[in-house]
Amino acid sequence: MPFRIALSGLNAASADLKATGNNIANAGTVGFKSSRTEFVDVFAVSYGGISSTAIGGGARLASVTQQFSQGNIDFTDNNLDLAINGQGFFVVEDNGARLLSRAGAFAVDRDGFVTNSSGHRLQMFDLSRDASGNPITGADGNLRYETADTVDVQLATTIGAPNATSIIDPTINLNSSDNVIDRGVTAFNVNDASTYTSSTSLTVYDSQGGAYPATQYFTNVSNTGTNGDNTWETRLYVNGSPLTSTTTGGPAATLIFDNFGQVDATSTDGGQIAYDPFAVSGAANLNITLDLTNTTQYGSPFAVTAMTQDGYSSGRLSGIDIDQEGVISARYTNGQSEVLGKVALANVANPQALSPQGDTVWAETFGAGDLLLGEAGSSTYGLLQSGALEGSNVDIAAQLVSLITAQRNFQANAQVISTADTVTQTIINIR
């Protein structure tokens, strides 16, 4: 009877309407992938094959497949918003179950884990470390990552540990034309600027992050007493107290320049002046080396081009950066940064066979193929865009046309039922 054929057509058109409606409803859903209904015809198979006079039995829904084409990338103000420009999925974990997603709207929960709106934790490749726990750097100078498995992305919620200053490395030019001060006549006095030629200051830190002012004093003592040409005296004071050179046994060390204005090897410690441990209250003694090898003596005014030291105070997390290759770097209020890991991406041979779980995530299936983990920008994996989200790939115009088509199909099948009813009624009325 044509009633059942038309009924199968109504069911098919209804399924098409549902899929189209779902696409339209999710036109604004981040990372959503549109679905397409696929139908097949129904034939009654007779013994030995299909008869040449057989009439089809209608249509049935074969599958609903998702289309994993690229959605538009929209920029946001949140560094934790991520978009994949190309192939691949984010890997998220839900109570031990690994899921895949293209929706990159992430945030930090109360424990510092980076999660999506459903609480699924974003996964990353951890840093490879040696036996001492230090990150391993390859021959190319890049950090190495454990790409065999993934771990949760967790931001540090504690205070970052401080680091004591061990070396001061200034880049300074001392003016060769400055007046000479004779130490046999004028003794050094930290409170009298006329007893030295130039000075510069910076801040150093102890093992507990305590900050102390450190001042370097330079005095042109050329051709005075036993001093030869191009000779300077240097001193280092920390928190108002002089440090003692381990070589000279006193606060003064000698800095000698050659005829080209470069530090000469005959300088105290070759220009890298080590000082005796300096005691500070409540923390470990400071062991500082003053590296003056970048100091010059030219006939131009005294100038400090750069002033660096390797100490820093404690700091709290101030921000996070994720580059296009997925490297996650945490920034702290003390000016330091730390690489946490690299965002893990995944891919499968047949994405359309993935099982949708809702909340814009998919689960692995046998039909999808083995899950392949990889890094952004490598092999077939796309690059990451931080501060951006991939929008839905739904084409509203195309969906509205599909909506009209499904509606017409539904009406046509309903008309078949009406016509079959009329024919049946005519047969019943034959006398």
Task: Provide a concise account of the structure shown.
By secondary structure, the protein is mostly beta strands. It is built from 2 helices and 28 strands.
Low-confidence stretches: none
Quote the beta fraction: 35-45%
What is the total domain count? 3
- Give the number of helices: 2
What composes the largest sheet?
10 strands, antiparallel
Helix content: 10-25%
* Helix and strand sequence: HEEEEEEEEEEEEEEEEEEEEEEEEEEEEH
Rounded Rg: 37 Å
Report the strand count.
Answer: 28
From the N-terminal CA to the C-terminal CA, the straight-line distance is 22 Å
Shape, please? Answer: rod-shaped
Task: Please outline the helices and strands.
Elements: H1 2-25, E1 35-42, E2 58-66, E3 73-75, E4 82-85, E5 89-94, E6 97-101, E7 107-108, E8 114-115, E9 121-127, E10 145-152, E11 167-175, E12 198-205, E13 211-220, E14 231-238, E15 241-242, E16 253-256, E17 272-274, E18 289-291, E19 296-298, E20 303-309, E21 317-322, E22 327-332, E23 337-347, E24 355-358, E25 361-363, E26 372-375, E27 383-386, E28 388-390, H2 396-428
Parallel strand pairs: 11-18, 11-19
Antiparallel strand pairs: 1-2, 3-28, 4-27, 5-6, 5-9, 5-23, 6-25, 7-8, 9-10, 9-23, 11-20, 12-13, 13-14, 14-15, 14-16, 17-18, 21-22, 22-23, 23-26, 24-25
